[in-house]
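Re: the 452-residue chain
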Amino acid sequence: MTEAAKDAAPPRAPDAEDGLLASLAVYLRPRVLIVILLGFSSGLPLALSGATLTIWMAEAKVNLTTIGLFALVGVPYNFKFIWAPLVDALDVPLLGRWLGRRRGWLVFTQGLLALAVVWLGFQDPVLSPWHVALGAFLVACASATQDIVVDAFRVESLETREQAAGMAGYVAAYRVGMLASGAGVVLLVAWFEAIGVARADVWAYGYIAAALMVSVGFFATLLAREPAGGPVISHDVGVFARIGETAVGAFGEFFSRRSAVAVLGFVVFFKFCDAFAGVLTGAFVIDIGFDKAAYAGIVKGVGFAAALLGGFAGGLIARALPLVTSLWIAGILQMASNLVFSWQAWMGVDLGALTLTIIVENFTGAIGTVIFVAYISALCGDRAHTATQYALLTALAAVGRTFLASTAGFVAAQTGWMVFFAVTALAAVPGLGILAYLQARGHFRELAARKP
């Protein structure tokens, strides 16, 4: 039997553990529930240094130029892989000894995050804009570091067949966390104003409430168990030497694998068609004649619900089927969903058609995201370098979403919307081609053999 046939071979006959009920019950396992709670904590900070902060500054009559420049405080999210080796190489003093390496880092970053959020809430956007910028930057740094640790903790604590379910729950909780710190904090501030709290204090109280929400992740960390099988950190060498060895080791271990370059290409291109179309979704909806209310209600509201359902569907697919089969399903769904936008361009201003289009796009996109992250998690099986390798791979995956997808506007301007979305569907071909190559090379059989 060829290696491709081995990868494509059907799984063993299902038993009680592999049935639908077991696939649903995986979300109730304690370690999966812990990851879900950590997802809520990870989703909280993004709006506090982004959309919610923007609303606060706009209400305070800060000029638009200054508000626009505040987008730069999100830079830590793009470069978190630079300090990820710290998380793999070093223990947090005292906390690492009491709680373990990953849990110690989690408590440390969550404490810093809560303090940064409170400090930001007590600044004045008009009188002290630089203090606000510093506070937002500190929130972003603590949040990005928390993401590094949570990703490593999730990969190390969940079994291979729990990864997709854990990620599905994590993504859903992350979105809820963003909602809580976004619309939730804004509504809370409005309520404080309605009951007579001084206008100068309402945003401080809102940010204090958001800081208290970080306790969800804090208590989840205390309830969790430290992942087994972590590396023993040698203290015979200096701190900088340890960090350097970790960074070099993470790269070296990954590139020593067979088909490493093809794997990196797959990571770049698998979600490219999704990102290529998604970067212009809002512009497309407005350009063909829909108003802002339709955009907010359907694209954001209906899309949010569809994405949540798609995430859990992706978890069930990855739980029930081999990883390579799940990736084929996700890749083909992503490709086909882009053609629905071509149909929408032909239909024009039709609310029913737009609702269906957004449901299909968000549902299939979320399936692809969860299954793809399950694959990336499977790549990071070396416990000595989990945080570093995961941060590097996710940064590489963002290449398609940022640099490659940035050409979408030029293509749409030359082709028109119907042809543009057909082109974005074709953008899935490189990723699917590399997937076929990796399957033929036995890559997924090797991954299955490496799992704990």
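The chain has a mean pLDDT of 80.
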